[in-house]
Amino acid sequence: MAQSLVTMTADTVPAADEPSSADLADRLRRLLHARGTSQTELARWIGMDPTALSKCLTGARRWRPDELAAVAAATGVPLGYLRSGRGRAPKLEAGADYRPRAAALDSERRRAQIVAVTADLIARRGIHNVRVADIARQCGTSTGTIHYHFPSKVETLRAALGYYADRLYERLDREFAEATDSTDKLRRLVDVQLPSTGDDVAEWSIWIQSWTEAMLHPELRAEQGRVYARWRDTVVEVVRGCQREGHGPGADAQALASRFTALVDGLAIQVLSGTGDMTAARMRELLLDAFEPHIHLRPAG
Amino acid sequence: MPRPNVEAERREQILLATCAVISETGMHDMRLTDVAQRAGVSSGMVHYYFATKRAVLVAAFEFNFTRSLARRRALLESKRAPMARLARLAESYLPRDDETLTAWRVWAELWAEALRDQEFQAVNERLYDEWRQLVVEMITRAQGDGTARAGDPVELANMLIAMIDGLATQVLAHSSHMPAARMRATLRAFIGTYLAAPGARSEAPSALAP
Q1: For the residues of B147-181, what is the DSSP string, one character each?
Q2: pLDDT-derived band of residue B25, with 50, 70 and 90 as boundaries?
Q3: For B187, which residue in chain A has the nearest alpha carbon?
Q4: Least CB-CB distance to A273: which of B25, B114, B172?
Q5: A4 by DSSP, 3-state: which?
Q6: What pLDDT was estimated at residue B206?
């Protein structure tokens, strides 16, 4: 959910000459194939949420005009051709060693670097103790460049939130791919967000800061709500999976998700603010009870 | 009649104002002049009671906690069954009125600061300990009369406190999926189906009926 390189505009503005999504998706897939590029890679080049990109390619989401323009720029294909299939067509021989245009890539890399540095600084020092000059120094760039990417403090926190959300979902995707069934997925949900390592603690520091800042700054609430809704939906989805597999069929999945997410957050606050010797290991023990008496996560016996 | 303690009153006035300012602007953007203005006293007066911004913040976090318990004294000292008191206590933290809302926002600022500041971490731990002990005692009593499940009362208290904190945080951050009504329902279900002894379980404990 990287902050888009392209400007944020209202979602899904339909253009007058809207391209047929099927044809467009087909052109893009052939293009990616020819370039030897994955969807994830393209998403990273243009700073787009990989899930959103994937939805665009299946027709489940409409392209925003600025997103399509960024795709054209990064892949070196005329926007007109991308939209309509007419005009100067790109060479599509497979295997041609293609590199995205240097300018696009450099700018994207630079932005990714700035986001990573900023997210790390905010996580470790706290948003109020990070100055633009600190970020610029660590990135080896000017404060002007940082201001260009983050016009306000709220923007830096928004980017940090996106950076750590990506990190969480990358772990979650890997864990889910190995899960044997939905109950196993639920156990992995418990494990994947425990504040165990230094990086996990940094991630939690961002979540906690994003809540407190969202309480104070209404302009952060939409992003905070979006990140949280994705996490909550993931929990609801897995609980429903458990129910389909016969565990706690009568329970209210939404209610269980509310309980689990609240317990996770409240316990993490205890671990991170260092109260009562709460540790990640104890937190895990308590979370194994989170779905009782409906779904049992402890090994039987 | 004894003369009212002017010093104590003025101190309280300043701390009330500090909590109000923290909840509106956050502790980092809080200025002592805002506090003085809010309290209706001079900046010099604030400095007379508190030498530094940090000193007034520490005192305000403690004041916020003590006051939140004082507001619940009737509930805490009531003769109700322990489980019913526990359920009512949990529900009294729903961020419904301005006072509760302010108290939560101040508390949340303390958590965020306790992430990396040793002094605030110590304050947070002291207050949390006191709060935890109070909940532990209630759970122990409820276990004594057979209405709460068996288990380490400290861990059960940690879970209940985590539930309350986690739910309130979502309500306060204005997450659209967590209106106050859902916080209440989630708390009731947790207490009624998890914390209650197996023989005394229900989705909406009768103790919570209005």
Answers
A1: -B-SS-HHHHHHHHHHHHHHHHHHHHTT-TT--HH
A2: very high
A3: A259
A4: B114
A5: coil
A6: 45
CATH class of B72-208: mainly alpha
In one letter, which amino acid is A271? V
CATH number of A104-151: 1.10.10.60
| Mean pLDDT in residue range B100-111 | 94
Tell me how long chain A is: 301
Distance in angstroms (rounded) separating the CA atoms of residues A134 and B58: 28
- Look up residue A19 and give its DSSP letter: P
**Band of pLDDT at residue A145, cut at 50, 70 and 90:** confident
Query: Topology of domain A21-99, per CATH?
Result: 434 Repressor (Amino-terminal Domain) (1.10.260)
The answer for B 54-93 residues in CB contact with A (under 8 A) is none
ipTM score of complex? 0.91
Q: Would you call B189 an interface residue with chain A, using a CB distance cutoff of 8 Å?
A: yes
Is A104-151 in the same CATH topology as A21-99? no
- For the segment A147-164, the average pLDDT, to the nearest whole number, is 90
The yes-or-no verdict on residue B142 having pLDDT over 80 is yes
Instruction: Give the minimum alpha-carbon distance from B39 to chain A in angstroms, rounded to a whole number.
Output: 21
Mean pLDDT for the stretch of residues A136-157: 88
CB-CB neighbors (< 8 A) of B173 in chain A: 210-211, 214-215, 221, 224-225, 228
CA separation, residue B150 to residues A276, B22, B138 (Å) = 21, 40, 13
Q: Search chain B and give the residue with CA nearest A260.
A: B163
